[in-house]
Amino acid sequence: MHAIIVAVSAVLLTLWPAGIGAQCDQCKGDFNGNGAVTIDEIIVSVNNALNNCPAPGPRFTDNGDGTITDTKTGLQWEKKDSKDAEEPPEPIVCPGPPTCANPHDADNQYTWSAGGSSPDGSAFTDFLAQLNGGSGFAGHKDWRLPTVVELANLVDYERANPAIDPAFSVPCTPTCTVTTCSCTVRDFYWANTAGVDLPESGSWTVEFNRGFVELFDPTLPHYVRAVRGGS
To answer: In 93-201, which residue ranges form alpha helices assigned H by DSSP?
Structure first.
């Protein structure tokens, strides 16, 4: 019986769903990291593979390159840095050198639209243009704003100040970088989703203080966080 389980699990683990992050880059099935795989771990691996589940472990993995992978969705998120105090002179509305030269600065705000309902505000022409320009960010040039569903999926209603997993909220200073800290402002972030009925009247945002999802005038400045993968 054990031989059958081992044989079946070996086949299923080769079909392990792609894109679920670093948890699957380890020795598959060795969940306690001791270099050996027990029968119980094999059974868990088989069940996970059959049900398209990620491997056990933290949902969010810091990749060490300024990004965080969500092992539940396979999405790769940009980290933010250089967060100043909650009071002025920040936030800065971008574009506007020299502050906006760093697209990862957590204090930077961007517009969704330049003056109507088109996605042509500085979130697209400045922020995403910087991430995807040159050699790209973290080796990729397909960064985008998240959908409102993807962004809302980051809200952790069991946390506050901000309402997000600790992977996105590591103590921040004005001089920290995306590899040394991870910042989230307790305010609204733009999604790439415009309002369906009246797109000229608003685009969707998600707030990381109480988890609100609201429409705002797309010409107003809000915070941003990029993502890649998925849709």
So the answer is: 122, 129-132, 148-152
Question: What pTM was estimated for this model as a whole?
Answer: 0.75
Residue 122 CA to residue 112 CA, distance in Å, equals: 7
Indicate the domain borders of the chain: 2-57, 61-228
For every residue of 39-95, DSSP letters joined together read HHHHHHHHHHHHTTPPPSS-SEEE-SSSEEEETTT--EEE--B----SSTT--EESS
Structure token digits, residue 50: 């059959």
Q: How many CA atoms lie within 13 A of 63 on its CB side?
A: 20
CB-based contact 193:202 (threshold 8 Å): no
**Rounded Cα distance, 21 and 221, in Å:** 32
Distance of alpha carbon 29 from alpha carbon 57, whole angstroms: 12
Computed on alpha carbons and rounded to an integer, the radius of gyration of the chain in Å comes to 20
Half-sphere exposure at residue 61, Cβ-oriented, CA atoms within 13 angstroms? 21
User: pLDDT tens digits for 19-36?
Assistant: 444 444 444 566 555 666
| Token pair in block for residue 224 | 């941003």
Whether the CB-CB separation of 46 and 2 falls below 8 Å is answered with no
pLDDT tens digits along 65-78: 999 999 999 999 99
3-7 contacts at long range (C-beta below 8 A, 24 or more positions apart): 5/39, 5/42, 5/43, 5/46, 6/42
Nearest CA to 28 out of 42, 7, 39 is that of 42
